[in-house]
Amino acid sequence: MKNLYSEEIMDHFRNPRNMGVINDADAEATIGNPHCGDVMKMYIKVAKRPLSQKLKVKSKKLDKQTENEEYIKDIKFQTLGCGAAIASSSIATELVKGKSLTEALKLTSDEIARRMGKLPPVKYHCSILAEEGIKKVIENYENRRDKNQ
Amino acid sequence: MKRIYLDNAATTPVKPEVFEAMKPYFSRDFGNASSIHSDGQQARATVEQARHEIVEVLNCKDSEVVFTSGGSESDNLAIRGIVESAVGTRRLALGGWQKNPQTADQLPHVITSAFEHHAVLKTVQMLEKSGEIKATYVKPDKEGLIAAEDVKAAIRENTVLVSIMYVNNEIGTIQSIREIGKMLEKLNSARSEASTGRRIYFHCDAIQAAEYLNLDTKYLHVDLMTLSAHKIFGPKGIGLLFMKSGVKITPQITGGEQEWRLRSGTENVAGIVGFAKAMEIIQNAKCKIRNYNSKTEKLRDKLIDGILDRIPKSRLNGSRERRSPANVNVSFFGAEGESILINLDLAGISASSGSACTSGALEPSHVLEAIGVKPEWSHGSVRFSLSPETKEKEIDYLLEELPKIIEKLRKMSPIK
Ligand code: FES
After folding, report:
1. CATH of A7-148, one of 3.40.50.10170, 3.40.50.970, 3.90.1010.10, 3.40.605.10
2. What pLDDT, on the 0 to 100 scale, is given for residue B195?
3. Cβ separation of B379 and A86 shorter than 8 Å?
4. What pLDDT shows up at residue B91?
5. d(CA B10, CA B354)
6. What is this structure's pTM?
7. How many contiguous H segments (helices) and E segments (strands) does chain B have?
8. What's the mean pLDDT when you consider all of chain B?
């Protein structure tokens, strides 16, 4: 298998980070890969924290009243798929955990693929699945939040 | 611990006896069988002796065996060779070469199965796409069996070739080759008496059958048959096409006119010797052991029962009864094939899968699709292919490891 997947991928495949379910999640999202039929599910728990000074200047108009930002306090995934799909889920959750929603939304599949080391071209779409999973779960959260406001 | 190899349908190791038999033909006896000098004549004698040994198993004449580079080449030679020769005769019958493409009902018609090995299937599809033939892909039933009546029903006046595999490489189901062969033979003699329609040739890819089943070409009533050495503990790079005398075929590799002018290229002497030795070992074992297949069959059944007993939501793909002694193809719901394979590999076990994620094209196995296995199930398919060398303790170890792997992956899966 050494020639198929990099050390990084094998590490995440063997010991996936953030794998599991959040029972009282603030949002969840299930996405499927039309190419190969794989399925990924993401759960997030969102919390607020005061904006750091630097960020305050930048996003003044966004969150004036509260001066707080929402961030991913916890994230978990479940994936039915190939080694690259499991590893990219693990890497993606690790990359966004603790990040503000705004930052997390900036995650790209390229970044995930880069972290995976050598990724066979036929497996690029697996990292795209993870990016979409993160975007979708945040989107679901925001939709729900906006509806409740 | 030693690795456990359960992917014998992909390839097998060269047996030490086979390797020994091949050794002299690299550096010491290196002659070209077409040369006139003693070195060449010795090579010729070696090739012909090896051919003769193989011919005994196939119950055919020496001149009916053409050595090739392997199974894919043999399949290509059979299909393209028959089609091209049929087009040639047709053109002659119509009075020489015609510029205009033939009309659809004049095109040669080829019948094969929907779950054939890609060496046959893609070749037929390609010829169909380029407008050289018409094709019918007979569907197997849910058990993975092709009915002779379905083949018969697909026959048209212009049918020139039927190609059906002996044992399916993925699910191991055994096809009724003899029955289909006899049916075609009857039809052919009726056709020739009435002088209507063409002769229909019957090709069989017997690669996965060679270790266990009857390869007597007269018993099987085949006109062409493909075999390969590396699936029976012989070397890679050598195969053969049996071609009954009188079968007209257009060569696909031209040049020095070796192999009865049907396949040019300097003979792979060492490969041919290794091939014959591998066949001979099987024959000798079959003579010595009353039921050569039963040991492998017992282990196969133990593995199937063990999996179905210990792992919920698992199923066997393909007929249980009409099945190669070596094949176990199972699906697990809520676990993906590639992930299962990597985990097995980490546990020291080699197997293969028909899941979309393991195929470069990201498409699920056409074989499982053809027998109606739903994508959710084919996604989690694994093939274990045994051999007469497989040990019971290897199966026991697999039966210990596999449930843990499936459980672990199911824990990760959002779909249960
Ligand atoms: S998710 Fe199926 S190939 Fe990666």
Report:
1. 3.90.1010.10
2. 76
3. no
4. 63
5. 13
6. 0.93
7. 13, 12
8. 94
pLDDT of B97 reads 46
List, in order, residues 6 or more apart from B226 with CB less than 8 Å away: B71, B74, B75, B78, B203, B204, B205, B206, B207, B239, B240, B241, B242
Residue of B nearest to A121 (CA): B360
Q: Coil, helix or strand for B156?
A: coil
The answer to whether B220 touches B181, Cβ cutoff 8 Å, is yes
Domains and CATH numbers, chain B: 4-12+291-412 (3.90.1150.10), 16-286 (3.40.640.10)
Q: Please indicate if any CB of chain B lies within 8 Å of the CB of A78.
A: yes
Give the integer Cα–Cα distance in Å for B260 and B249: 11
Contact state of B412 with A86 under an 8 Å Cβ cutoff: yes
Give residue B359's pLDDT. Answer: 79
For B415, the closest of A19, A35, A39 (CB atoms) is A39
CA of B335 vs chain A CAs: smallest distance (Å): 6
Taking the centre of ligand 1 as the mean of its atom positions, its distance from the CA of residue B359, in whole angstroms, is: 10
Considering only the beta carbons, identify the residue of A40, A41, A81 that sits closest to B357: A81
Sorted by sequence, the CB contacts under 8 Å of residue A92 that are 6+ apart come out as A77, A107, A112, A130, A131, A133, A134
Whole-number Å distance, alpha carbon A36 to ligand 1 midpoint, is 6
State the ipTM, two decimals: 0.90
Residue with the nearest Cα to atom 2 of ligand 1? Answer: B357
Please confirm, yes or no, whether B287 is among the known catalytic residues. no
Q: Which of 113-142 (A) contact B at CB < 8 A? A: 122, 125
Token digits of residue A140: 């679901």
Chain A residue closest in CA terms to B376:
A37
Phi, psi of A87 (to 5 degrees): -65, -40
Each residue's pLDDT, cut to its tens digit, for chain A (149 residues) gives: 557 899 999 999 999 999 999 999 999 999 987 667 889 999 999 999 998 656 655 555 555 555 789 999 999 999 999 999 999 999 999 999 999 999 999 999 999 999 999 888 889 989 999 999 999 999 999 999 999 87
> How far is the alpha carbon of B311 from chain A, nearest alpha carbon, in Å?
18
Residue whose Cα lies nearest atom 3 of ligand 1: it is: B357
Would you list the domain boundaries of chain A?
A: 7-148
The C-alpha of A137 sits at a distance from chain B's nearest C-alpha, in angstroms, of: 15
Report residue B327's pLDDT band, with 50, 70 and 90 as the boundaries.
very high
pLDDT tens sequence across B387-397: 999 999 999 99
